[in-house]
Amino acid sequence: MFSLLESKKEIATAQRKLEASIARDFTKRAVKNIGYPGGTTYNANVYTDGQYWFYSEDYRTSTTPRRLNWFGLFSKNTDLQISVEINTAYAGRNDQVAGFFARHNDTGSTYLLHSGRVGGGTKGVGKSAFLAWGDQHLIEVADSSGNVREGVLVMPVEGKAATRPAIRYIDTIVRFKQAVRAGETNSREFQSKQRTFNNFYSEPRGRRRGRRPGEIDYLSRHGDIVDALKSWLNSQSLPKGCRLVKNALIDLGIADGKKLIRVYEVKTTAARCDIYTAIGQVMVHGNAAKCQRVIVLPQKEPLATDLASALKRLNIDLLKFKLDKLKATIVS
């Protein structure tokens, strides 16, 4: 469960840590013009690693005062364009501002989250389409009144390799906008996928749990692990006539036509509650008689004896991954 940061002091502290983490990983500085629909910010001091950039400043004169957090792809020779704004309010809850900070109640770690609202002035670019296209998982965050706000986990505000998941999120947004321009989101297949996504996220859902991370934040690297699994499966050669599938319901699967013959669920911890959830997910979605069910867990975390016995009894296979600062690797 996550709790929204609402006090001015806590939000300011989270923002300082966020900027320090990005400055640590984006070690270069550049003065650039930043263009956006309706205007340009001239001579902005940006942080960059040569491929991505970040810019932040106060914006208090608006009717919705906020701290600007802009991200995008870096270019040496042209003005910069904003890929996504993850601006945050100075205090309280303000859903007009797309970004917000939340604390994981079990670990105490603080994260930057984004509503999933993306813009850019192109027809078809919008929140629902982006979330469905990018297979984004929405996390529930409770505010001080007990109400829930949902968002995509972008990055932890501190820790080793904190910016890695943010880079992945920027890339996903860039690829989504390219897909819209190419007309990919007009296909019948995508429209069906978007309906599935909308139906799924209109239902009540359980809350994700975790444990205190070490130097590397496993929770925020879920997407990297799924990508590593996809690459590993491709290297193994898929069964003839089969293809990889992914949507809001499953992390990854192998389908023969419309039939799912293998389903994978990635968990970033081997905590009992996560294993219970994973078992339910692979049993529900891998419901064909001969579907192979696989749970993917961290290599370094031991699995309780009774849980291992349960997986064996239920004919659920186990795959492990290892994670370092730069990449995730599947360990067969």
Short description:
It is built from seven helices and 17 strands. It has 332 residues and is of the alpha+beta class.
Verbal overview:
The chain has helices at residues 8-25, 127-133, 164-181, 188-201, 222-236, 272-285, 305-313, and strands spanning 2-4, 28-36, 39-48, 52-59, 66-73, 80-81, 84-85, 99-104, 110-114, 139-142, 148-156, 242-245, 252-256, 259-266, 292-298, 316-323, 328-331. The two termini are 31 Å apart. The protein contains 7 helices and 17 strands. The strands form 3 sheets. A 6-stranded mixed β-sheet has the order 6-2-3-4-5-7. Strands 12-13-14-15-16-17 form a 6-stranded mixed β-sheet, sandwiched between helices. The protein has 2 domains: 2-201, no CATH class; 219-331, Trna Endonuclease, Chain: A, domain 1. A hairpin with a 5-residue loop joins strand 10 (139-142) and strand 11. The chain has 332 residues and is of the alpha+beta class.
Keywords summarizing the entry:
single chain, 332 residues, alpha+beta, Trna Endonuclease, Chain: A, domain 1, six-stranded mixed beta sheet, globular
Strand content: 25-35%
Distance between the termini: 31 Å
Rg (C-alpha, Å): 20 Å
- Strand arrangement within the widest β-sheet reads 6-2-3-4-5-7
Tell me the helix content. 25-40%
User: Which term fits the overall shape?
Assistant: globular
The overall pLDDT, averaged over residues, is: 92
SSE order, one letter for each helix or strand: EHEEEEEEEEHEEHHHEEEHEHEE
Structural class: alpha+beta
- Biggest sheet statistics: 6 strands, mixed
DSSP helical segment count: 7
Low-confidence spans: pLDDT under 50, at least 5 residues? 204-213
